[in-house]
Input
Amino acid sequence: MAPAVDYSLYLVTDSSPAILGDRDLIEVVEAALQGGVTLVQYRDKVSDTAVLVSTARRLHLVARKYNVPLLINDRIDVALAVGCEGVHIGQDDLDLPSARRLLGEKAIIGVTVSTIEEAQLACRDGADYLGIGTMFATATKTNTKDIIGTAGTKEILGAIAEDGANVRTVSIGGINVSTVQRVLYQSSAPKKQLDGVAVVSAIIAAKDPKRAAEEIMNLIRTPPPFATTLLSDTEKANDPGKLVSLVPATMKAIAEKNPLSHNMTNLVVQNFAANVALAVGGSPIMSNYGEEAVDLCRLGGSLVINMGTVTAEGLQNYVQALKAYNLEGAPVVFDPVGAGATSVRRSAVKTLLAAGYFDVIKGNEGEIRTVFGSLVQQKGVDSGASTLNNAEKGKLVKELAARERNVVVMTGKIDFLSDGKRTFAVSNGHELLGRITGSGCVLGTIISLALAVNRGDKLLAALSGILHYEIAAEIASAREDVRGPGTFVPALLDELYNVHKSTSQGDWKWLERAR
Ligand code: 3NM
Output
């Protein structure tokens, strides 16, 4: 049995000039240990054996000073020569049973895995821990097998929990201050969580490795802002009627706080989205320049990333803004417009899901299926023909929301929304919404305003936005002056405003239409 190990912040070294520069590895590792690193792996794929042994000896001395175990990457012989605490082996290294025979029961042995099968085999062979990766693409190691992201990591954790394996786990690849909290939060399977993260460049390449380790450790110990729940799980309404009754409070909060809705949206709907935000009590800004997000994310509002007219430059801007909002802990809505239409958009979805956390993902059936990972061929950005039945739609939004630990909204004749635990269907709305452009996009804007004032229950925020919008559409479409799509648009703006106004004055009779 290996001794108890704290896997929270696992430093993996790299002596290459690109990462270590001309600094001394031992000094850098010591600084990281002062910053709170809990485990160290010496990883050097190029040096001669004599150099490996002498460096490992010096690292072992330093690590012991801080009571932290030292493991050696791949080289069992070096670990034996140094007498350190264990090794880490990759899929192409010596097999685990042989390593165990050579090192004995007390050695800590970890294995790199990127699939469920590799994880299950390593568990059967008695690995002490699994290094699960590659989480995100990283310049530190480019010959990795697969980028599995938080979704793939969660699947592996779920499978080993099913098997009842008592193995510890860390994630590796692209983990740094801007990703660490999300990695820990979104990778967690219901019965198995990561024990920590393994980091190379975020500490070794940092100007101040001690500070970098401290910062990452602080983030590991703090729940991410997007996990904040103002209501406890049991208080959160489980039945639709109760949840609907909480909608007016969210809408009144929008009226009182006049929150910012920062839209990075497509050229087609900028004007419409700004008008809708104003009509429902929000304060809109249309800014597609990522640099501006650094300031805008601090204003108590939220961001909508709508990739309706995505370009390479636009995508970089979205990523920059998403990171800024995530770091600030401000909410973000993702509208993957036309996600399944082209390979560029499918790849943009992947880039964005890897780049940050979205509180709400809202799209039509084809878009949500694409975000889930199904290969869907969409035509335009309209919803197109439906291929899933209602039960399948409900299941899909629930699974995607559980996977991403957020809220997923699938719009359509009936809308489905879920936070992974609670799943509801809403059948409000009107056929005319499908006859005007941007009707889906502006729903994202309304939801962003509700999220800005109620992030404690994201599902309630999404529901509030949907009901406000779709019931206003029903009221507008019934007006005598509405004769088609052209007259519907101004009427919709009026009725969005009227519903907002009456609700903030305490009259929410309109909500009786909710179904
Ligand atoms: N192993 P950074 S990724 C050493 O996927 C290593 O197995 C990986 O470096 C794997 O923290 C990786 O700088 C490098 O992204 C991680």
